[in-house]
Write a structure and sequence with these properties.
Length: about 325
């Protein structure tokens, strides 16, 4: 083999080895990038699972509180009904005794009147009957008081049962609404400011670009839609990383009334369209919308009313 040919063969071989090394290096880089992306997804999934577990534990605690309240009220109402039945029986018995004594009292009066009509008065007999009548009158007065107390007790117990049943109905409604209401999110649109045509794609800790979110949703209650009509709900945006609420408007010490925890709305069956503004510097990459039922100033989170719309710094398209 000539030297020029050998040189050409060696040059080609070296070129091939170099090309293979370059391709191998590119494959390794792509593999490492894929691994990094997978690790990021796993970390994000673990964070989401942790957040979901916390929310699940919180919801279960609230549901257990509702169940305990309902169970306790049922027990109290059952005991009160037993008490009411006893009070009614006592009042009925006292009423029967009182009527019999009233009849006896009338008989004594009639007997005394008959004795006075005789030509010859039996004063001893009349005196005995008068004493008996007086004693009977006193006994009747005491019994009338007992009867009045029994009636009052029955009335009070009846009113307490009514109050407890109203409380029971309230707790049952809260439990039913929070566990059965479904929220269908139609749109969640993060913007720099209200009316901005630009829809944001990302959120990073420290950013001030995201100040406004347009949200539209529909509430559904399977089988009995009237259960949620006229009910007041609250929507809040929750910072999952720092476990805090993004206040509607913003926290402002100078104007505390300018800040509230969430955005309230009364459901009337129509599509709910809300504009949520918070101008604070954001501190997280993961955010969730949560819906609560509001009752007497207390909030009860809906079991099926949450939506993670910002995950690992990326807004989801909804």
């Amino acid at each position: 083999m000539s030297k020029p040919l050998l040189g050409i063969i060696l040059a080609v071989a070296i070129l091939c080895l170099g090309t293979y090394a370059v391709f191998q290096s590119n494959d390794i880089d792509e593999l490492e990038a894929t691994i990094d992306q997978s690790e990021q997804k796993v970390d994000s999934l673990e964070e989401n699972l942790t957040d979901q577990k916390k929310r699940t534990v919180k919801l279960e605690a609230e549901n257990q509180m509702l169940r305990d309240s309902i169970e306790k009220l049922n027990t109290v109402i059952s005991d009160l009904r037993i008490e009411l039945a006893k009070a009614k029986d006592e009042a009925k018995e006292l009423k029967g005794k009182l009527r019999r004594r009233e009849a006896k009292y009338q008989d004594l009066k009639d007997e005394i009147a008959r004795l006075y009509k005789k030509d010859k008065l039996d004063k001893a007999r009349i005196k005995t009957l008068e004493i008996e009548k007086s004693r009977l009158r006193n006994a009747m007065d005491d019994m009338s008081k007992d009867y009045a107390l029994a009636l009052k007790g029955a009335q009070n117990t009846t009113e307490e049962i009514k109050d407890r049943e109203e409380s029971l109905s309230r707790w049952q409604a809260i439990s039913s609404i929070t566990n059965n209401t479904r929220v269908k999110f139609r749109n969640v649109i993060p913007r720099k400011y209200m009316g901005s045509p630009r829809v944001l794609d990302q959120v990073k800790p420290g950013t001030t670009k995201w100040k406004h979110t347009d949200i539209s949703l529909q509430l559904e209650y399977p089988g009995n839609h009237k259960m949620i009509l006229g009910q007041t709900f609250m929507l809040e945006i929750f910072d999952l990383d720092n476990e805090e609420v993004l206040s509607y408007i913003e926290q402002n010490p100078k104007f505390p009334k300018n800040d509230q925890k969430g955005l309230f709305f009364k459901y009337d069956g129509n599509l709910v369209e809300l504009a949520y503004t918070n101008t604070q510097k954001k501190r997280a990459k993961n955010y969730e919308i949560r819906i609560y039922l509001m009752k007497d100033g207390e909030e009860y989170e809906l079991s099926h009313g949450a939506l993670v719309f910002a995950e690992n710094g990326n807004f989801k398209r909804i």
